[in-house]
Design goal:
Shape: globular
Helix content: 55-70%
Number of strands: 2
Structural class: mainly alpha
Strand order of the largest sheet: 1-2
Distance between the termini: 31 Å
Number of domains: 1
Number of helices: 5
Largest sheet: 2 strands, antiparallel
Strand content: 5-15%
Radius of gyration: 16 Å
Length: 164
């Protein structure tokens, strides 16, 4: 599916900004010392929005998390559906796993798998490491760095501000 320039502009200025807000909420609220005490429902929703956004952006890059040989890493994942919009519609190519450090891959893949399996399904597996605030904030920061480097800088644009 080809995108018109109008489609691209709407995606970059509206849709991605909204999804960046989902990604950034945990980092922003934690950085502002937001008090989640007695608000477990909100805290869980904020954490889950982070998980969903990390997974969504990795898919946008053409990547997915895998666990093989006792290691979390990223693998290529082309579009699954005809109406999926991936980064190649904007920059002409997908991001390759080897463009991301092994340590960053581990964090991103772990959070991806948690979102893909543990958040999306009732399961008997639970990976506590990638449910911790620090891992989720690290993954969100890495996603923002990748978006800035591979999309916004490439297009000569600024990464959008948090949509509050």
């Amino acid at each position: 599916m080809d995108l018109t320039q109008e489609d691209k502009d709407e995606f970059l200025h509206k849709h991605l900004r909204h999804r960046l807000t989902l990604l950034r909420t945990l980092t922003k609220r934690t950085g502002d010392n937001y008090n989640f005490v007695g608000q477990g429902d909100i805290y869980r929703c904020v954490k889950d929005s982070n998980l969903i956004a990390v997974r969504m952006f990795l898919n946008f890059f053409g990547l997915k998390g895998i666990f093989q040989n006792e290691t979390f890493e990223l693998a290529e994942q082309p579009s699954k559906h005809q109406d999926d919009i991936l980064i190649d519609k904007f920059i002409g190519h997908l991001i390759k796993p080897d463009e991301i450090s092994k340590n960053s891959q581990r964090i991103l893949a772990g959070v991806y798998i948690r979102a893909d399996k543990e958040l999306a399904h009732i399961t008997n597996k639970f990976n506590r490491e990638f449910n911790e605030e620090s891992a989720l904030i690290s993954a969100a920061s890495l996603i923002e760095e990748l978006l800035k480097k591979h999309l916004y800088d490439y297009l000569g644009m600024q990464l959008p501000e948090l949509d509050v």
